[in-house]
Every structure is written in C-alpha cells, then in structure tokens.
Amino acid sequence: MNKSEIREEIFKLVYSLEVQDSKNEEQIDVYLEDSEISEKSKEHVKDTALNILKVSDDIEGKIEKNLKTNWDINRISKIDLTILKIAIYEIIYIKLPYKISINEAVELAKKYGEDSSASFVNGILASVVKDNKLAEE
Predict the structure, then answer these.
(1) Which residue ranges form the domains of the chain, and what is each CATH number?
(2) What b-and-e string marks burial along 65-97, b requiring 16 or more CB atoms within 10 Å of the CB?
(3) Alpha-carbon span 114 to 112, nearest angstrom
(4) Beta carbons of 67 and 31 less than 8 angstroms apart
(5) CB of 105 closer than 8 Å to CB of 83
(6) Do the beta carbons of residue 46 and residue 83 sit within 8 Å?
C-alpha cells in the first residue's frame, strides 16, 4: 500500500469511530481484523488512529479557532471533521510538510465529502497553517 492508501484507511477507521462517538481501542482492533491490509500497515493505522484520539480535543480547538464567526464545530460533517483531524495531526504533531497533508486532505474531501468539502477543508487547513506560523522547511 502506498501512503495515500494508508491515509485513506486511517480516514475510514477514524471516521467510523467519529460516527460511533467512540474512543475504544477494541473497536479499532475489530475494524482492523476485517481489513485486508498488511500487518505492518495495520500497526501504522492503529497507532495513528490512537494518537489522533489522544490529541482530539486539542485538534478540535484548532479547528474551532479557525471557523467563521457564527460557525460551530458541530455543524461540520463527520467526514470533513475526520479529514481535518487527520491533516492537522499530520501537520502539527508529526510535522509532515503542510502542502502534502493539505493536498491529501483535499483529495479525500473530493472523494468522500460534499461538493463544498474540498474548498472548506482547504480553507480551514490554510488558516491552521497560518495561525500556527508554519513554514515549509
């Protein structure tokens, strides 16, 4: 599997946890049990999902800080919220170059989101990058 496919698996797993409003490691194992990805990829997907869950409150704070004035995080679709969480985790916590992460997030939004999802995700992530004064190294 390439990195984009692994990221998509992470998206599917984190999305399923979002929908179920769960932070249960057992549910992660159940999800991965049925997955046809390699054992090495399963470990990476699981570790990433667990790490995203650990910092979820901080990530949601970054999202809320960058929403328009009358917007609330509860108005964001679970799909868009999941994509944002993964991208912000990659950018802030594992220091993936933001251009790569934003591009991958926009592609996921185009594939799984609504018509406006790609531009919404791009805008929020651009604001997060600017707000955190991140520069390409």
Answers:
(1) 3-131 (1.10.940.10)
(2) ebeeeeeeeeebbebbbbbbbbbbbbbbeeebe
(3) 7
(4) no
(5) yes
(6) no
Report pTM.
Answer: 0.92
Contacts of 5 (CB under 8 A, 6+ apart): none
Amino acid identity for residue 133 in this structure: K
91-110 pLDDT, tens digit each: 999 999 999 999 999 999 99
Let me know if 45 is exposed, middle or buried by CB neighbors in 10 A (0-12, 13-18, 19+).
buried
Q: In b/e form, how buried is each residue of 3-16, taking b as 16+ CB within 10 angstroms?
A: eeebbbbbbbbbbb
Q: What is the mean pLDDT of the chain?
A: 91
